[in-house]
Amino acid sequence: LLGQILDHWFESEPLKATLATDAVIGAMSSPHSPGSGYVLLHHVMGELEGRRGAWGYVAGGMGALSQAIAHAAASRGAHIFTEKAVSRVLLGRDGQAQGVVLRDGTEVRSKVVLSNASPQITFLELTPQEQLPEDFTRRIRHVDTRSPVTKINVAVDRLPSFLAAPNARDGQPLPHHQCSIHLNCEGTHLLHQAYTEATGGHPSSRPMIELCIPSVLDPGLAPRGCHVVSLFTQYTPYELAGGQPWDEQARNAYADTVFDCIEAYAPGFKASVIGRDILTPPDLERVFGLPGGNIFHGGMSLDQLYFARPAPSYSGYRSPVPGLYLCGSGAHPGGGVMGAAGRNAAQVALRDFKHL
């Protein structure tokens, strides 16, 4: 349990609760849920420029990371096509992957196909079902994809000023503006309470909020004097109680709750807002292809990790279809901006390619 790990090392409840957010981030679970301790460790086991557990912003936004990978691939001769939706994986008579068919009917032939889509999209939507073992597809269907995340992107006309550390008169960014700011995290009981509300189908009345201001470190993201604020919030259920839809009214009501919470820490925040973009779990699923809105393509619980990710006997990136590989967050070792699943899958595909 997460609580046992934190209690062993720390005394301060606000510090323990703040660290606990990394144990429940993206997960429909509480700090008291079994296995939550692993998710915390998962988020600090990596390194950045030699510093273990360090995190960083990507200059130009997260899309710049994808562009850097794309440029590296293109320099080695790769051809990259965007806005070209794939309709299905193309299989030969022997059941081996032979490429993909695009939605416009174009066939792209290849001896290997690596899918960075979720296991659900890869195996339940793009792969002919008759080519997959029934127990495998059953397992993929039953992967826990519950997500508590509603992401809110905000444009503001001035830097937020927090009661705990007010801005200087010149309005220049202070050290805490360059960090991840955790709100409503004074105690782990608050996180558990927020979780409990969401499991009943109700967005949290006092949601966990991780606030960061990337434009402080990357001024090109916003006009001079203005900033972009990224809010990673939970808990919000995928399905609301009583079958209510996540319509504009529900979206805005939850966002207003979040903004009211921020206002209590940083008076004047609401008045500084120029615009906001609200992405609930169904929105994250629709826009980004995340099953259930889950940022990890499936829960990072102990029953869905290691040899069981995405399914027992298929944790080595190969699938039941020869030549078809899973290389995204739904594969081992799971989600996170680290590229481990992709690198590992590429190594396996390269070894197999010699025999295909």
TrEMBL record:
Superkingdom of the organism of origin: Eukaryota
InterPro entries according to UniProt: Amino_oxidase (IPR002937), FAD/NAD-bd_sf (IPR036188)
Location of the Amine oxidase domain: 33-164
Gene Ontology molecular function: oxidoreductase activity
Chief subcellular location: mitochondrion
Keyword line: FAD, Flavoprotein
Classification via Gene3D superfamilies: FAD/NAD(P)-binding domain
GO cellular component terms, semicolon-separated: mitochondrial matrix
SUPFAM superfamilies: FAD/NAD(P)-binding domain (SSF51905)
Compartments, as annotated in UniProt: Mitochondrion matrix
Ranges in a coiled coil: none
Family: Belongs to the carotenoid/retinoid oxidoreductase family.
PANTHER family, A to Z: PHYTOENE DEHYDROGENASE, PYRIDINE NUCLEOTIDE-DISULFIDE OXIDOREDUCTASE DOMAIN-CONTAINING PROTEIN 2
Assembly and binders: Interacts with COX5B; this interaction may contribute to localize PYROXD2 to the inner face of the inner mitochondrial membrane.
Biological function: Probable oxidoreductase that may play a role as regulator of mitochondrial function.
Full protein name: Pyridine nucleotide-disulfide oxidoreductase domain-containing protein 2
Organism listed in the record: Asarcornis scutulata
